[in-house]
Amino acid sequence: MKTMQRAVALGLGAALLQALMLIAFAWPAANIAPRDLPIAVAGPQAAVVAERLGQHDPEAFEITTASDAAAARAAIENREVYGAIVTGGGAPAVLVASGASPAVAQQLTAIAQQLSGAPAAAVEDVVAADPDDPRGAAFGAMVLPLVMAGLAAGVLLSLVIPTAGAKVAGLVSFGLFGGLLSIAIVQGWLSVLPGNYLTLAAVAGLVSFTVAGAVTGLAAVIGRAGIGVAALTLLLIGNPFSAATSAPELLPQPWGAIGQLLPPGAAASLLRSVAFFDGAGATKPLVVLAVWAATALVLLGVAALRGRGADAEQVAAPTVEPAPAV
Fold first, then answer.
1. pLDDT digits over 171-185, tens only?
2. According to the model, what pLDDT value does residue 317 have?
3. What is d(CA 286, CA 265) in angstroms, rounded to the nearest whole number?
């Protein structure tokens, strides 16, 4: 009877986990919409355009005014805005950056068509996505394998490697070779990511180290439960809210912002900055990944010190000789 109850409870738990995963992955995708999306307006009718955008949806855009089209392009290239609407000389033109987010570029193009009243508004892609991946599908698909591989490596290091020092060596090895191989496939074979190979490999290696380190560090401090905590955090929260296929400002808030504080979201943003924008906007995601990596090393250090303390107590404990038989 106990076996039957345990089996039913296990099935119920798996069903609840399945429901949670459906919510985590489907809910963000079903609620894609601009939320304080940074864009710029420029030209003599910039104020009119800003007013019309505000009337359409007051919470959709965070609008800044650029002095001219050149300033708007510079703001896009520096990752200060996702796009711009430029007025003057006829119908408004739209500047987009599909390298930052193909989904946002499509939305801004549709808005420009509404403003101009023409079926084909003038559109300039200032920072274009890779021509072999114009919709960003391959780029978005990169994040989940990096996370899954990092989780697997972290689990193996936690269960197989006994000492903290050896675990760190395993993390460094995984980060080094994982980064080099991942970018070799994505850039060399699939040709969907521009930019310097070694720089991108370093980013991918940092992501691999960080994800695996989070699992290994938590498991070293709180035991096997740490594996579950890391997996739930990175997979059920970090991955669906990474905005790898959209943009943080298109996701329900505050989850879009929270996703950028987790390794999957930071990884997507950092890879975009390095690959398409020559490093513009890379500081924040780089700091996020560095903090996670440093925290993993601290947790492993704590576990190592705890293990030494336990060994020292065993050595210092007096040995009690058995009483002689009478």
1. 999 999 999 999 999
2. 56
3. 11
